[in-house]
Amino acid sequence: MFLGGTALAEPANFSGIAQFRADVAVREDARLEVREEIVVRNAASFYKYGFRRDLPILPEGRWDPKDVNERKRKNGIRVEILEVTEDGVPVRYEQGSGYTYSQVRIGERNVPLDSGEHRFVLHYLVDSPLSLGTTTDMLYWNEAGVRQNSPTAEAILTIHLPAAVSLDQVQVEPRVGGRSVSSPGDPETTLERIDDVPNTIAYRATNMGPQQSLSLSLTWPSGAIHKPWTDFLHSESLVFGVPALLFLFYLAAWIRIGPEPKPGAVVPRYEPPDGFSPAAVRFLTTGTTDGRSFAAVIAQLALRGCLRVERENGKYKLSRLMSDRTMESSLAPEETITLAALFEGGPSIELSPALDQSNQAQNARFVFHIHQELNQQFGGKYLTRHPGIIALSVLGTFISALLLAAIAQGPNPGGAVFFTMWILFCGLAMGMMFELSFATAWRSVFRSGKGWLTLLPGTAAIAIFGSAIVFMLTKLAAGVSPSFAWMVVALLAINLGWAPQLKRRTKLGRELLDQIAGFRQFLEKVEQDRMDRLAPSASTPADLDRYVPYAIALEVKEAWGDHLAQTFLASTVVAEN
Fold first, then answer.
1. Boundary (domain end) residue, out of 475, 500, 525
2. What is the DSSP letter of 538?
3. Residue 97: closest CA among 482, 480, 404, 485
4. pLDDT tens-digit readout, 246-302
5. Statement to judge: residues 127 and 70 lie in one domain
6. Beta-bridge partner residues of 525
C-alpha cells in the first residue's frame, strides 16, 4: 500500500523521474517485501540503453555521514524478484550477476527509452537486510540506491513495521541528499514526514538532483523480529564449517587407523615371494593394476610358452601357442583369465599403443579383469585403503554440498546444484585418475625416458576437464559467492588429499613388501645388465629371462620389458579397494 502525498506540479518540460514511491514491509522473519513504482517522463537522455534500475542493496549505498566510508563489495544481502511490469503489463527483464547483481534491466536490452511517460513497478523480496542485535534492531534503506543519474521530482519512502514493534520506541533518522556530507540537497529540496497509517513511517522529498536520494535509518528494541532457524544454512561460517568437519573426520579416522607396520630389514632375495605372480607383486607394491601389470602378464605368458609376441612398427601381435595342460594349470588366476580373454576372438590379436577410444577400451578391459582377480585374492589381506571411510566421506561431501547448493542465495543461484555436483563428480574422478594412473605413468616415463608421447592425449584430456572445472567454479563464485566456490574446492582437495593417506599395509603385507624389496634389490644389482642385453625383438621363451616379467612389474629398467610396458603405459589404472 502506498501512502498519499501532496501532488507535485512538475514543469511541462521536466525530464527524469517524476515520481518514485517505495513501499517496504518489514516481516517478522527478518525479510523485506518491497514494491517500487517509478514514473519516468522525457527521460530518453538518461536511459540511452534501456531502463535500468539499480536496487538499493549495495554496501556503498549507506549514505548517512556516520556510514559514508563503508565501501565493501559484498554484504550478503540477496534479492528475489517477484514481478516487473511496465505501464501495467508484465515485461521482460534481466538481473545482473556477480558484483553487478543489483542491476535490473527492464525491456529490450540496448533499446533507448523513448521520450514519453512510463510507469515501472518492481516487486521483490530482500534477505538479510536488517542488523539484528542483542538490544536493538536496525534497518537502513536508501530508496534510490547508488547510481541514480537522473533528477527526481518527488520521492516517497514508506516503511511498514510488524505489529509487535511500537512506533513510540522507533528512532528515525531521515536524510535527503547525495552520498557524502558535502552532497546535501539543493535549496529547493524539501523533506517532510507524512505517515498517517498505524505502524508505518513515511517520508516525502521533492526536487532531488542526480546522484541524490531519500534514505531512512530506523532503530527499535530487539525481540519482535527473528530470523528463521534455517538462516544459519546461509552463513559464511557454515560454508567453511563443512570442509572443516570433513577434514576433522578424516583426521580422526587417520588417528584411529594408526600407522602401518614399520619396514623391516631388506635382505636380497634370489627368487620372488613364493606363490606371487608378477602382476600380484606389482599390485601389492603399488596398490594399483595398470598397463604395466598387463605387460607383465603378457611377458609371463610368453615365458611359459602360452603365446608368441611379435613386434612390428610399434605394435605387438600376440599369437596363441599350443601349451601343455600342466603348464596352463600352473598359471596364476589373472594370467589364465587374460589368456582366455586375449584369444576369445581368434588365434591372434594385435595390440597397439594408439589412444583411440576402441583400443583404449580393449586394453582397459584386460586391465580390469586382472584387477578383479588380484583384488579377490589379496584385497584386504595384505593392504587396504579403508574404502568404507572414504565412501562415507564422499557420500557426506555430496549430501552436504547438495543441501547447501539447493538453498544457496546469490545473484544467480539457479545453476548452483548442477555446477556443484558436476564439479565434485568430475573433480573427484579426474583427481583419482591422476593420483592412481597418470602420476604412476609419468613416474614410469621419467624413469625410463620413453613413452611420454603416449601420455600427452590423456594429460590433455585431464587439462581440458580441469579448465572446465575452473570455468564452472567462476560461475559459482559469480552466481552464489566466492566463499561457496572455495568451499567446493576445499571439499575436493580434502577428499583427494586425505584418501591416499588412509592406505595401510597389514602386518602380512609389510612382511611381504620387505621380501619384494629384497627381490627387487637383487634384480637391480645382479640381473639388470644381463636383461638389458636382451634384444627388444626377442619373442621366444628361450630368449626371455625368467625374471623379465617381474622386472616389468617392479619397473626395473630393462629393454624388452620397457618396450612392451610402454605400449600399455596409459591404459586404465584400477586401484585396490
1. 500
2. -
3. 480
4. 999 999 999 999 988 888 888 888 889 998 999 999 988 887 787 788 888 988 998
5. yes
6. none
